[in-house]
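Convert to structure. Protein one:
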Amino acid sequence: MSVTEARIDENAVDSLEELGPIDFLCIKFPHRHAPGAGIQLLLHLVDRGIVRVLDLAFLRKEADGSVHRVPLADLGPDLAPFEGAASGLIDDEDVYNAAEAIAPDSAAALLIYENRWAAPLATTLRREGAQLVSSGRLPVQAILAALDAAEAA
């Protein structure tokens, strides 16, 4: 399935009920360093059906603090497969919040994606009446620090 074929159809209730968990990421690139190989890995995950990109946006924060949303077409051919990945879930407030989180002379990517690998489990649990009551992510740095601390003790 191509990235542009992976849009959510809001009118298809059955498909909405079969969604996997959806995550939002904001990834900063200090000094506007290009993601490079990361884009290829994301494409590989999409091609394998592990994730579905629902929305992808890039922004740039200039040295003077001004912020610009950058069209994917302006970022080179590696991002061309994602040009149709715009569900509208990323709004101006998301871009503003991302800009606040990065330093001047930096860039950020905002990514909303479905964890397709978990869709069958999520669908089954919902049909059985289960509800998600909490969700979170453990930063790798925090895990490594905790393991280092435990090892030192």
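Protein two, convert as well:
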Amino acid sequence: MGNPARVVSTEIWQDGRAVSTVLEYATGARCIATWIDLPNLWDFKETLEIYGDDKRVILSYPTGFSRGQLSAVTVRDIDDNGASFETHPAVDWESPFVAELRHFHACVTRGVVCRTPLSAARHYVQLVVDIARAGLPT
């Protein structure tokens, strides 16, 4: 989706252990993101959902740390007759978190080119700053 054009809003709650933010993209699309720390519940769940007018794609990471629990992809679509259906494309057996660590290791030890160049890091840092600023009381 690229870099957002702006941070629409941010709410920081639960004494700073939760953040909800709305990002706007140049196309007019919105990203609604929420992060919540549950200090007494050792559970991890990450879900990315992308919605279009006639399709929804959901990517779920059940855990970042347990072996044998795969990510899942669900595609909800509409056929030519207007009937809804759902597919579950196969997902690579390797955990995406492990794959990310392997790639980082290869960048450091073998000089493999990073998928995301270091020059892009400034955009990520600026986004975090913009999200935090939007959450400050006015």
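Residues 96-110 form the longest helix (15 residues). Residues 44-93 form one domain.
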